[in-house]
Hints:
This is DUF4913 domain-containing protein. About 40% of the residues lie in helices and about 0% in strands. The protein is built from 3 helices and no strands.
Amino acid sequence: MEGEQELYYPHVASFVSDRLVHLYTRRLGQNAIWCPEWFRHAEALSRLDAIWRAWEHLRLDPATGMSVWWRDHADPHMMMLLSPDGPFAGCRGKHTDYPIPPLPVEEPPAGLFFDQRKPHLRGV
């Protein structure tokens, strides 16, 4: 696609191991938890992928790109990931398959939502 920027990193794992873990140096313990096998946690994988993709886009902005990246992307996601109640809560320095069930949900009433992929059918 024309105008598409070339990625600096080939994938999120390369970004995490080459850049992110060196930018986010933290004393791990009760208040900050990290799993070396972060890729085994769906939430972590999704958040880290979002951090990487934002970095890839914002790195090309020489004025405020990195500031925006830290403020709007890296810090909020990493705060959640490193949180004692975050996705790594059971890991404590090594990966553990910590069995946390998904959030409970109930089926919404029929007709409350419509297929967003077909907005022309709204109200049918």
